[in-house]
Amino acid sequence: MAKLITYLLFITILFSFIFLTMSKETEYNPESYGAGSLKSYQCGGECTRRCSNTKYHKPCMFFCQKCCAKCLCVPPGTYGNKQVCPCYNNWKTQQGGPKCP
User: Where are the domains of the chain?
Assistant: First the structure.
């Protein structure tokens, strides 16, 4: 019985370690964003992620890809966080609104 408890405790600790290691890899890392952090072929996937929660998917994708092609950067998440991509954040429409989603 003691061996079974020791084995279960070991397995629990092992899975906890694996989970913590994997969660650190997906954590927001500001150094991996910013102007020039992407290659042009990565824009499609990053814009798909960025526009995944909007009901205006086509315009979001159009402008996101346009902004990504110019800035080579797409902010993390599906909304906000534009401060990590200054080019993406500062590109405005003629009316002064944000051009990039």
Answer: 32-100
Dump pLDDT digits (tens) for 45-86. Answer: 999 999 999 999 999 999 999 999 998 999 988 888 888 888
- Look up the pTM and report it: 0.66
Q: In the numeric block, which tokens belong to residue 35?
A: 């102007």
Which residue type, as a one-letter code, is found at position 17? F
Contact 74, 88 (CB under 8 A): yes
Instruction: Look at the alpha carbons of 51, 79, 38, 91 in this order and tell me if their dihedral is positive or negative.
Output: positive
The b/e string for 27-38 (b: 16+ C-beta within 10 A; e otherwise) is: eeeeeebbeebb
